[in-house]
Design goal:
This protein has 23 helices and 16 strands. It has an eight-stranded mixed sheet. It folds into three domains: 119 residues, Enzyme I, Chain A, domain 2, CATH 1.10.274; 100 residues, Phosphohistidine domain (Glucose Oxidase, domain 1, 3-Layer(bba) Sandwich), CATH 3.50.30; 312 residues, Phosphoenolpyruvate-binding domains (TIM Barrel, Alpha-Beta Barrel). The relative contact order is 0.09. It has 573 residues and is an alpha/beta fold.
Length: 573
């Protein structure tokens, strides 16, 4: 048995196919006619872009625009002055061939991205190399191997799968994926989840342990891969796979069921989304609304800041598609691990605690007002709510509301309609905000707890640092107590409180959060139906007793042990 990262849920059983791409063997050659060599490079780049355009259109039509965006990114990479300009400069200075200059420049850039101390940026290094290798293959006259040529059903085992590889996956022929690299945020994982293909990533030397033709069991829930299992294990997993398929089919019965516990407590099960293109997909899961719409991706889509009209079109579209269901839109949350070149933000030593989110918006009032005006105008078309991120003190809330009022006055003078009773909320993700939540509750209509940052700040742990990531613990008593404090403060002021961090969809803690009194759970769309099923089978009265017991405990281990007993004796979680 091999252990890796559970990247896409499900169970696959099948023969292994070792996928090894023939790497372009780039050699350094001296070139006399540099102008002709640069023309050769330009022609190869144009050809690569045509290939990428064709893949983009295929993926867009089959999986949706959001899944195709990576190929658009590769096209942008092939226009990047750092990569292409740097390549041509190297050719000019050293009189070398295009293949060698491009590979050298791409590898240098990729190394910079890999060492930014950020998993997202490290994974973009793969994009730079993938796009560059496409051009090199064209220059060398090599044809790219294609996964679309696979004839028999199999489980793909590879060192890595580039976005251009995963785009060619055929769900009818590829039953599972195993790779040596990658994580839950890698493109392989995203595409696998979209296609419903079980995947286990990050298994060191997987292609050495596994041979083509080996019988594999891929458990995308546990992150395990069994090689040539014995008959008993195979029978066990075949039964589990049939049950998994049936369970997923039966879950669809809960798509349009109200999110009410067995003893009548109603909550909202909402979706977190990153763009307009996600809305059609999330509607398949029957959310009660959108608990978090991340507007930063609208800003990151282009080199310049989006105009008021562009933002209005996006916000209006999403509230209209939700047909009266609540849509909570978070104002710009740039900074930390999300950069925005158009704002010219200086690199910081500790960006997660620096110039970001509401701090940036209050400083760049011009940018903030453009967004607030667009949001107000969109509020006339549906049930839109505004949420301010990373609030640390009451002064920030007051100042943000003052700027919002300025925008309301301006729009009223212009005779432009907006919802005058628009609900305003804040994210509780800084420990100071949780500690003064009773004060903040007087200033807003609702809270949404962002557990990702709340845990990071409370526990002083960088979850991307493998040496300390074990401290990033959903069961930590300090985090759970801050959550309970926040919920109680909101309810005392007759305000609602939701949660949009990863913990909201974390099944083992849902009975605890429900018992604490959480009003709204917002999560990845694919988790909505299973969480709704769980909640409809729980009793709120039992969950309140459970939450009280958990909050009296002093360690994560004690909490986990007690929850296992609760799960076994009361409900299947």
């Amino acid at each position: 048995m091999l252990k890796g990262i559970a990247a896409s849920g499900g169970i696959a059983i099948g023969k292994a196919f070792i996928y090894q791409k023939s790497e372009a063997k780039v050699q350094r050659r001296t070139v006399q006619n540099i102008a002709a060599e640069q023309k050769r490079l330009d022609d190869a780049i144009d050809a690569a872009k045509r290939q990428l355009k064709a893949i983009y259109e295929k993926v867009k039509s089959e999986l949706g625009e959001d899944k195709a965006e990576i190929f658009e990114t590769h096209m942008f990479i092939l226009d990047d002055p750092e990569l292409i300009g740097g390549t041509k400069e190297k050719m000019q200075k050293e009189n070398v061939n295009a293949e060698y200059a491009l590979m050298s420049t791409a590898e240098k850039l990729a190394e910079i991205f890999k060492h930014m101390g950020n998993q997202y940026m490290a994974e973009r290094a793969t994009d730079i190399l993938d796009a560059s290798k496409r051009v090199i293959n064209i220059l060398e006259g090599n044809s790219n191997l294609s996964l679309s040529d696979i004839e028999n059903p199999c489980i793909i085992v590879a060192r890595d799968l580039a976005p251009s590889d995963t785009a060619k996956l055929d769900r009818e022929k590829i039953s599972g994926i195993v790779t040596e690299t990658g994580g839950r945020t890698s493109h392989s994982a995203i595409i696998a989840r979209s296609l419903g293909i079980p995947a286990v990533l990050g298994i060191d030397n997987a292609t050495s342990y596994i041979k083509s033709g080996d019988l594999l069991i891929v458990d995308g829930y546990k992150g395990t891969v069994h090689i040539n299992p014995d008959e008993n294990l195979l029978k066990t997993y075949e039964a589990e796979r049939k049950k998994d398929i049936e369970d997923k089919r039966l879950l669809l019965r809960y798509k349009d069921v109200e999110s009410i516990t067995a003893d009548g407590k109603k909550v909202e099960i909402n979706a977190n989304v990153g763009g307009i293109e996600d809305v059609e997909e999330i509607l398949k899961f029957g959310p009660d609304g959108i608990g978090l719409y991340r507007t930063e991706f609208l800003y990151m889509a282009k080199d310049e800041l989006p105009s008021e009209e562009e933002q209005l079109a996006a916000y209006k579209s999403i509230v209209e598609k939700m047909k009266g269901k609540p849509v909570i839109i978070r104002t710009l949350d740039i900074g930390g691990d999300k950069d925005l070149p158009a704002l010219g933000i200086t690199k910081e030593l500790n960006p997660f605690m620096g110039y970001r989110a509401i701090r940036l918006c209050l400083d760049r009032k011009d940018v903030f007002k453009t967004q607030l005006r667009a949001l107000l105008r969109a509020s006339a078309y549906g049930n839109l709510k505004i949420m301010f991120p990373m609030i640390a003190n009451v002064q920030e809330v007051i100042r943000a509301k003052e700027i919002l009022e300025e925008c309301k006055v301006e729009l009223a003078r212009q005779g432009i309609e907006f919802n005058k009773n628009l609900k305003i909320g804040i994210m509780i993700e800084v420990p100071s905000a949780a500690l003064i939540s009773d004060i903040l509750a007087k200033e807003v209509d609702f809270f949404s707890i962002g557990t990702n940052d709340l845990m990071q700040y409370t526990l002083a742990v960088d979850r991307m640092n493998q040496k300390v990531s074990y401290l990033y613990d959903f069961f930590d008593p300090a985090v759970l107590r801050l959550i309970k404090m926040t919920i109680d403060s909101a309810h005392k002021a007759n305000k609602t409180v939701g949660m949009c961090g990863e913990m909201a969809g974390f099944v083992p803690l849902i009975p605890v959060l429900l018992g604490m009194g959480l009003d709204e759970f917002s999560m990845s769309p694919s988790s909505i139906i299973s969480v709704r099923k769980l909640i409809t089978g729980l009793k709120y009265s039992d969950c309140k007793l459970l939450a009280d017991k958990i909050l009296s405990m002093g360690s994560s281990d004690e909490i986990k042990k007690h929850l296992k007993a609760f799960k076994t004796s009361n409900y299947k979680i």
